[in-house]
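Please check this chain.
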Amino acid sequence: MYTFQALQVLIFLIPGFIAAKILGVFIVTDEKKEFEKIIEAIVFSLIIYTIYSIIPGKSPIALNQDKETITYLYNGISFLKLLLLSLFIPILMGWCVTNDCHMKFARFLRISRKTSRNSVWFDVFCDKKAHIIINFEDGRRIYGWPQYYSNTPKEPYIFLYNPAWILTDKNEQSVFEDINIDGILISPNQKIESIEFLKE
């Protein structure tokens, strides 16, 4: 009986760990401690089994005791349903978090002013789809499309597609000098002072 109970606990937790792992692929989060990962898996498992209990079907595992023989009965259809829920729920949650859907609704209701992302840096680059001008501390300026960018401002990496340096001519007018390259990776060593997001 102890083995059966341990097996039930394991089957209860596995969908949660699968869901948590899949969600971590789709969204940007800070590194969690082991205890926080376990709590997250338990919460996911609770959600998954709550939805699973509504769906008609047999239990994933059952115990059949016939005299002195104990047999474990597994239901493949039930495991498949659990697997599909373990995939669908984190994908849906990842879509909501990436697009800030649930927090937009919360801000609309004036429940919160927060976003679902972990930094203002990431918020701005996700929401502001526009060409940018990067102003460096040494006075240089570069223009381009931010095709890739880091998740946090701690390591401000930005890949600019089709970049051009912005120079000042004799008349104090800004001119664009095409670098004639596909893109350039701006690293933290370049010391960014500010970033301008241009209108369409």
